[in-house]
Amino acid sequence: MNILIVEDEATSREMLLSILEKEGDHQILTASDGDDALKLMADPRHPFDVVFLDLMLPSISGLDLLERVRAIPACRFVRVIICTISTDSATVVRAARLGVRHYMVKPCDKIRVFEQLNIIKAEIAGLQKIEKPEEAAGRLGIDIPAYKAKVGVTLDYMERWLTKAKAGARSTDRQQLVADTGRLKTDALDLGLREVGRRFSTLETRLSIEPQEEVPASRAIEIAFIMSHLHGELNRVRSVLKIIAQDKVES
Predict the structure, then answer these.
(1) Pairing, β 50-54 against β 27-31
(2) 15, 38 in Cβ contact below 8 A?
(3) Within the chain, what is the greatest distance between any pair of CA atoms?
(4) At what angle do helices 34-42 and 62-70 cross, to 10 degrees?
(5) CA 182 → CA 36, 40, 101, 118, 230, distances in Å?
(6) Bridge partner list, 50
(7) What distances in angstroms separate CA 151 from CA 30, 135, 226, one per listed residue?
(8) Is the distance from CB of 212 to CB of 172 less than 8 angstroms?
(9) Model confidence, pTM
């Protein structure tokens, strides 16, 4: 993979570089500020697959840089992994609007880095986000209309659960949230909603860490980020399968 690391702090930059060099056969370039990063990304000789982007850069903020990057046709859809110490919810919202789907709170450890790269590798390899409806319906032994109806009911329930779960994600007792997330992951995969299932799996992992203790702010923002993208993915599934949300039908 062609990877760019945008990080002004030398120790963090070298640590991430070391992890990536051990992970696989990657072509890796680094930039210590936004200006250098923008030059590299605008250069057609460097078609990056992934950009690890720090948000606190000296010349331009990471998100301001990303706005400029998205204006470059060749970089409009480049995959970005935000690496930051920020726990500001506004950061999550803005990043999501700029098409960022991957978020890591620093310091970045190798398990998290490998996890994010594996997800991106699957995306690049063209792994379908949704099983073909006719194949999923056949596997379940039902017809297409019944399959879409079943998916619609499941999506509506997931939407309501996510809205409610956001309020309890920092609770001192999250065991029920973990159990619910695992069940929703299974439901999604049974219906062939692969991307939804993967995101619920990631959410389950985040919620399972020290379930009896208060969630630190850094992990809470990661959880909020995952939930935000789950909302978006549910809407995408509806769009692909042409399923109208139940609240819109009732209204």
Answers:
(1) unpaired
(2) no
(3) 58
(4) 20
(5) 43, 41, 21, 20, 14
(6) 3, 79
(7) 43, 14, 21
(8) yes
(9) 0.61
